Amino acid sequence: MKSVKSPDIICRLKEIRNKKKFTQTQLADLVGLKRQAIYDMEAGRYLPNTSVALRLARVLDTSVEDIFYEKLQEHQPVALVDEQTITDPRVSIAKIRDKLYAYSLSGKNSIMEEMKAADGLLEPGNNRVMILKSNEQLENTALLLGCDPAFSILGHHVHKNRTDAALHCRFASSKKSICQLADGYTHIAGIHMHDTGSIDGNQEFIRKGLKNFKGLLVAFAFFEEGLMVARGNPLNIRKPSDLAQDGICFVNREKGAALRTLLDDCLLKSNIPFSAIHDYNDIVNTHSQGALKIIHGICDVALGLRAVATAFDLDFVPITRVRCDLVIPHDFLIHTGVKTALDTMQKSSFRNELSCLPGYDASCTGKIIAKF
């Protein structure tokens, strides 16, 4: 029998066998092996194939993962992104160009409105992390920053199409996504800037924000942007300039958000100063936060997408349709998570689901818009 060593695999066979009160010979007979094979496995000299591992698990009434598991590379150096001080040590980890970056799993940007399992636990000082995933899992996980809620759907489809790959999505405005990409903190940036005349807004945004960028701009989807209002539109909001009317309470998005830029452009074209909008400086950081404020009667109008308004049973006043794109550096095109995401965007199952979202158009999904 060929002897195979793997220092990254921990074998608990002896421990579990002793608990079950089997001798090596008894276990070997039940599994259909020679006693020497059991001895070699327990000594770390031999790893069984899948069939043998499954037979061992069945006889010992446990799982293969309980008998053999990969040694985690714990306690590695890490750089904490965004939050300088955090109270929750649970973090999501992105491995980018051989460096580990940690993002807090709590706080305003932790997308989407759910709790997530952590990839690691920060140690005191926030510069080292105890890894809770295998190195292979970290290597195959891509990070996407952006503010399109449908990114999470792409993430689910990525894992369905390839179980050893993953796409983690984290909320960030178009401006912040590009800045984080430039700083090497993400694999992919999602942007949806608005066109000016014949100038493609996303391409222009890259030229200005990413000097000497080499990579692809890939279309994700078209979607409708506008104003979210209560069901029935009780204040009869029809256009952005209506926000200047007395008695209308509004919540804005943060600077750098494409929706805020859209609103500002509309107000400037209508010669309406920002100061004329009540609560113009009242900020929410996500589409869903704005929707919830409307539902709870805290405000009357918020910026958002038609799909988000529909999901929260709100009415929607359209302003424009915009294309959301993915910005991908050239050296990440061979990354397992990135490649799987691009492949997934070509599949009809994903495109069909995307097309079912209110206000979404997947006719452009996966198309290469530009090469840089």
Automatic annotation (TrEMBL):
Transmembrane annotation, as ranges: none
Recorded superkingdom: Bacteria
CDD domains, A to Z: HTH_XRE
Pfam family name, one: HTH_3
Signal sequence, renumbered to the chain: none
GO molecular function, one term: DNA binding
UniProt xrefs under InterPro entries: Cro/C1-type_HTH, Lambda_DNA-bd_dom_sf, PBP_domain
Name used for this protein in its record: Transcriptional regulator of molybdate metabolism, XRE family
Record domain HTH cro/C1-type: where: 13-67
